[in-house]
Design a protein that fits this description.
The complex is a heterodimer of chains A (439) and B (423). Chain A is built from 15 helices and 18 strands. With 439 residues, chain A is an alpha+beta fold. Chain A has 2 domains: 232 residues, 2-Layer Sandwich (Cytochrome Bc1 Complex, Chain A, domain 1), CATH 3.30.830.10; 178 residues, Cytochrome Bc1 Complex, Chain A, domain 1 (2-Layer Sandwich). In chain A, strand 15 and strand 16 form a beta hairpin. In chain A, helix 9 crosses helix 12 and helix 12 packs antiparallel against helix 14. The radius of gyration of chain A is 23 Å and the shape is globular. In chain B, helix 1 packs across helix 4 and helix 9 crosses helix 15. Chain B has a 6-stranded mixed beta sheet, with helices on both faces. Chain B starts with a strand and ends in an 8-residue tail after the last strand. Chain B folds into 2 domains: 219 residues, 2-Layer Sandwich (Cytochrome Bc1 Complex, Chain A, domain 1), CATH 3.30.830.10; 175 residues, Metalloenzyme, LuxS/M16 peptidase-like (Cytochrome Bc1 Complex, Chain A, domain 1). Chain B is globular, with a radius of gyration of 23 Å. Chain B has 423 residues and is an alpha+beta fold. The chains are: A alpha+beta (439), B alpha+beta (423). At the A-B interface, helix 2, helix 4, helix 10, helix 12 and strand 18 of A face helix 2, helix 4, strand 9, strand 11 and helix 12 of B. Chain A: This is Insulinase family protein. Chain A: It comes from Anaerofilum hominis. Chain A: One of its GO terms (molecular function) is metal ion binding. Chain A: It holds the Pfam family Peptidase_M16.
Chain lengths: 439, 423
């Protein structure tokens, strides 16, 4: 019934003593199975290639525009069916379930030590039978509205989207993953059905299962499932994004104790074949600039200008590539200037081999430790599957990189003219000295 | 869990961890928590983490750890019931995963034992510049607690709940005391810790024999007068008090704290683990299903039980105008569970979920260690497998009985000024 295995391969890495199977089904679904000896639990992740940046698509000759937050909204609603709630079904068999939406994907996950077959049935069933009504959509608008408000109180979240808003003209990465209270008010059952028809198709989904599980178990579950049989997947449409930034800075206020600084660099988005390598290079540059082994970090730390939470992050996908530095600081302008100076210094003086080796080791260690958690392996396999990258690719890139590669990357990345700085300042006289009333 | 009592008030616990790519060793110093030394013990771990006699410079130590594939050295503190715990851990790749065959594990032990037992002292005190820098960081941390509204609300509720009890001593110390923590005072706190603390070492995936030998060498070099662990405590039941704090936030936060009035017995603890899961610990819990999903009164609403203080907290994110109704709904759910009946299906589902979590404890280094250390603090030393049997035997009446012990002590609402119901 479309669940026949067309291709099967075993992938193995001696570097981490790890192997997994990749199966491609006739209906287009990609399946990964990673049995892990010594573990009790099974972790599964069903990832759908539909995230918050997917706001327009073409299907069956028709173009559809979506309100901000629809992928996340759908994530909430997919747990419901006419027969009840998937959370209830998981609860009956002792599994723990969750789901999350990012810029590029929606993931449904469970962990279970017993009744794994039944848990797989619930997981596959929950994405196979979408069911939305006016009433359930209206109820969810209230719940998600509260979630949106909760994130509005998070300084890190506010900084992130304020930086993206400075950098991007059109790319939907600048909008909150959950949308706004206003944008989700436009969502109807029809909107949601249009999205499941377009994106919840087998060739746009990946199932990854890791831990105490066998290939036979997973294939049997797929045989029992009634997955959609390969309808036309929506073609994602992107508005062109200029290379230039929108504006170089912004200021916000909220109830925090000291300012928070975010500096974003808008980089040229990379094609699928070179994206991971550039992400690794950007990660390495972050470590080389402000990691805790660096002279800049030490100077700013000792001067009380940054704390151990000051860090770099990389955001990359189809149509966007951004390097973000952020953290609390009482002197945002000083820290911004120091970071830009350090970038210029490294560019002029080069990167010492020893510094490169240390930062590469840190990232390599992180990558290897990712293979000891079934939950992490399932999530990574699903993410790699959607991007069509092997799970071991990051390890191999790190092992092969040289200091010269990083020097060359720095020539292109982290240019001041493509950067924006956002400062979130404490509300004047508020936030630290609130009065408490006993009733 | 293999446990070995060593001389001098120390013990070594070896936990199975063969399947992992990393190994981990933790040294815990446990001593009675005191108000006067709270700030020194809050500062001590962050100063220790900067370096030790064998590697005093913070950046040099960071580079050493980076060369060991980003091995993580962490020093932290917590207040567990009436005890102060200072924990120093190192975690890193096992030797066989090094790119160039480096001997990693021996280096981990050097760094860990150096940090715990050979601090970098200048004339018998911690380095003044390092102490000043870390005092400023701690000051910022204390002043910045408002940044995380959810944690801040819970912390404010705890302050009202515990009052002057040792269990309520602040993990991060007190702003007012910070100036008084001199390099010398910090060295005295360190000396007190090494002299009087019970020492519990946990080894996961590292050479336990080597750890034991090094530990005994270090302890034998100290004058030791180790304290006994303080038993679990409980706040007495009292008339419920409500507090409202205005703050500039979009979403309100509500925290309710309940006490059992006395420490729970071992059997009651097992029942309470299940009862807390059923009340507000699972996505299928009463709080999630009824207060969040059915009544849409909050975005999150969950509970946590502290076995060392027999207290139960409910933490929720509410729209300010719904706060009073959310509180009533939460109280209603607790009363309904305590009064019973609890359906057999609901009980079995909760047991299944809880047993699943128990069985998965062995799947991560951190959960194995967390479980073992909790058992050490309780003095029970049970494996998750041993607890499984007791969970299977629990009845619906057991859960009702244990929940009926709890009464509301403190309600704390963080909200926009003038936005709460009835204000």
């Amino acid at each position: 019934m479309g669940n026949k295995v067309l291709r099967s391969e075993t992938l193995r890495s001696g570097r981490v003593d790890f192997s997994y199977e990749k199966l491609t089904l006739e209906n287009g679904l990609t399946v990964f199975v990673a049995p892990m000896e010594g573990y009790r639990a099974v972790q599964a992740c069903l990832a759908v290639g539909f995230g918050s940046v997917d706001r327009r698509f073409l299907r069956q000759g028709q173009e559809t525009a979506l309100p901000a937050g629809v992928a996340h909204f759908l994530e909430h609603k997919m747990f419901e069916s006419e027969d009840g709630d998937a959370f209830d079904l998981y609860a009956r068999i002792g599994a723990s379930a969750n789901a999350y939406t990012s810029f590029e994907k929606t993931c449904y996950v469970f962990g279970a030590t017993d009744q794994v077959d039944e848990s797989l049935d619930v997981l596959l069933g929950s994405v196979s039978h979408p069911w939305f009504t006016e009433a359930t959509v209206a109820k969810e608008q209230g719940i998600i509205g509260q979630e949106i408000r909760m994130y509005e109180d998070s300084p890190d979240w506010r900084i992130l989207f304020a930086v993206f808003d400075c950098l991007y003209h059109n790319c939907p990465i600048k909008e909150d993953i959950a949308g706004t209270v206003e944008s989700i008010a436009d969502i109807t059952p029809e909107t949601l059905y249009a999205c499941t028809d377009a994106f919840y198709t087998p060739d746009n989904m990946v199932l990854a299962v890791a831990g105490s599980v066998t290939r036979a178990q997973v294939l049997a579950a797929l045989d029992r499932a009634e997955l959609p049989q390969g309808g036309e997947t929506g073609q994602k449409l992107r508005r062109p994004e200029p290379e230039e930034i929108v504006h170089a800075g912004a200021e916000l206020e909220m109830a925090v104790s000291q300012p928070v600084l975010g500096i974003g660099f808008k980089e040229r988005p990379r094609g699928a074949d070179e994206r991971l390598r550039w992400e690794v290079l950007a990660d390495l540059l972050g470590e080389l600039l402000i990691g805790d082994t660096t002279p800049l970090y030490r100077r700013l730390y000792d001067e009380g200008l940054v704390n151990s939470g000051f860090s770099s992050d990389v955001f990359s996908g189809e149509g966007y590539f951004c390097i973000l530095f952020s953290g609390e600081t009482r002197e945002p302008e000083t820290v911004r200037a120091a970071l830009l100076q350090e970038i210029a210094r490294l560019r002029a003086q080069g990167i010492a081999d020893e510094d490169f080796q240390l930062c590469r080791n840190v990232l390599y260690g992180e990558a290897v430790s990712g293979f000891e958690s079934p939950e992490g392996v399932a999530a990574d396999l699903a993410a790699c599957g959607l991007r069509d990258e092997p799970l071991f690719a990051e390890l191999e890139i790190l092992a092969a990189l040289t200091a010269e590669d990083v020097r060359a990357a720095l020539e292109e990345l982290l240019r001041e003219e493509r950067s924006a700085a956002v400062v979130l300042r404490p509300l004047a006289g508020r936030g630290q000295t609130a009065r408490t009333a006993e009733e | 869990m293999q446990r070995k009592e060593l001389r001098g008030g120390a013990a070594l616990t070896v936990l199975p961890a063969d399947q992992f790519k990393t190994s981990r060793i933790t040294i815990n110093f446990i001593l009675p928590s005191r108000r006067e030394t709270a700030t020194a013990f809050a500062l001590l771990p962050i100063v220790l983490e900067r370096g030790y006699a064998g590697c005093p410079d913070m950046t040099r130590l960071s580079r050493r750890l980076a060369s060991l594939y980003g091995a993580g050295l962490s020093a932290d503190t917590s207040v567990q019931g009436g005890n102060r715990v200072v924990s120093i851990s190192i975690c890193g790749l096992r030797d066989r995963y090094a790119l160039h065959g480096e001997a990693l594990s021996a280096a981990y032990a050097d760094i860990l034992f150096g940090t715990a037992f050979d601090p970098y002292l200048v004339d018998g005190a911690f380095e003044p510049q390092a102490v000043e820098i870390e005092k400023q960081k701690l000051r910022e941390l204390l002043e910045g607690e408002i940044n995380n509204k959810r944690a801040y609300c819970v912390q404010q509720a705890r302050r009202r709940f515990f009052g002057d009890s040792p269990a309520g001593i602040e993990r991060n110390g007190y702003l007012d005391d910070l100036d008084g923590v001199t390099p010398q005072a910090l060295a005295e706190a360190y000396a007190e810790m090494v002299r009087t603390a019970r020492v519990e070492v946990l080894v996961l995936g590292a050479d336990a024999g080597e750890v034991e030998t090094r530990l005994l060498q270090k302890l034998d070099a100290q004058r030791r007068a180790p304290a006994l662990l303080l038993p679990a405590v409980a706040m007495p039941a009292a008339e419920a008090r409500s507090y409202t704090e205005p703050v500039d936030a979009v979403q309100g936060k509500l925290c309710l704290l309940f006490t059992a009035g006395r420490p729970l017995t071992g059997r009651e603890l097992t029942h309470m683990r299940l009862a807390a899961a059923l009340f507000g610990g699972l996505p299928s819990s009463r709080l999630f299903r009824n207060v969040r999903e059915r009544q849409s009164l909050c975005y999150y609403c969950s509970c946590a039980f502290s076995y060392l203080t027999s207290s139960l907290s409910v933490d929720s994110g509410v729209q300010p105008e719904n706060a009073a109704r959310a509180q009533q709904a939460i109280l209603h759910e607790l009363q309904a569970l305590a009064a019973g009946p609890i359906g057999e299906q609901e009980l079995q589902e909760t047991k299944l979920s809880y047993l699943g979590a128990l069985r998965a404890v062995g799947d991560s280094l951190s959960s194995i260690e967390m479980w073992a250390f909790r058992e050490i603090l309780r003095g029970t030393f049970e494996d998750p497998q041993q607890v499984e049997h007791a969970v299977q035997l629990a009845t619906a009446d057991d859960l009702c009985s244990v929940l009926s012990l709890f009464t509301l002590s403190v309600s704390y609402l963080l909200t926009k000024e003038g936005a709460a119901d009835g204000q």
